[in-house]
Amino acid sequence: MNKDLQQALGKAKQVKLLVLDVDGVMTDGRLYISDGGEVMKAFNSHDGHGIKMLRRSGVEVAMISGRESAMLEQRAQELGIEHVYQGFDNKITALDELLQVLNVSYLQTAHLGDDLPDLPVIRRVGLGIAVANAYPLVKEHALWCTKAKGGEGAVREVCDFIMAAQNTLVPALDQYLH
């Protein structure tokens, strides 16, 4: 096992909060815009189930997005995510507010991102993670990178990784086997 992966597993054991970017992480980053100006995005259902499992294991999940979207609110509601920050160009501002509300430290926080607005958060939290197709500078500063691309199971990969590090993955999967 490489040094970065060992270090990431150690940090994942401490995670109490997973913060997700949206466009390029929970989606593939493409925006579909109709003639009427309606914006549509596609979310991965496997990611959604991973989020639900992670939340049931005791890890809080939040979203911080630079864009504003009614469909994001709807998706968050479907997944039981209570902490959604939209329209934040400076994601550190949103993160600081979130950590205060939840009484969680930077070291107890993981962030999954893909582009430059995520970089300050990835550099500050205990476990900074980039999706496989993230901007190169973001990948360079992340402690760990997923094998999956944004919108293609990267969130599920991170949820499973955190749960495996915290020894909650096998018990969560057992309910589906028995």
CATH class: Alpha Beta
Number of strands: 8
What is the average of the pLDDT values? Answer: 94
Number of domains: 1
Write the layout of secondary structure elements.
Layout (H helix, E strand, L loop, with lengths): L2 H10 L4 E4 L11 E2 L5 E2 L4 H12 L3 E6 L4 H10 L3 E4 L4 H12 L6 E5 L5 H6 L2 E4 L5 H6 L2 E2 L8 H12 L3 H9 L1
Overview of this protein structure:
- This protein is α/β, with parallel strands linked by helices.
- The chain has a single domain (12-173), classed as Rossmann fold (3-Layer(aba) Sandwich).
- It has helices at 3-12, 45-56, 70-79, 91-102, 119-124, 136-141, 154-165, 169-177; strands spanning 17-20, 32-33, 39-40, 60-65, 83-86, 109-113, 127-130, 144-145.
- The strands form two sheets. The protein has a six-stranded parallel sheet, with helices on both faces. A two-stranded antiparallel sheet has the order 2-3.
- A hairpin with a 5-residue loop joins β2 (32-33) and β3 (39-40).
- α2 (45-56) runs parallel beside α7.
- The longest helix is centred in the N-terminal third of the chain and has 12 residues, at 45-56.
- The termini are far apart.
- The model has no long low-confidence stretch (mean pLDDT 94).
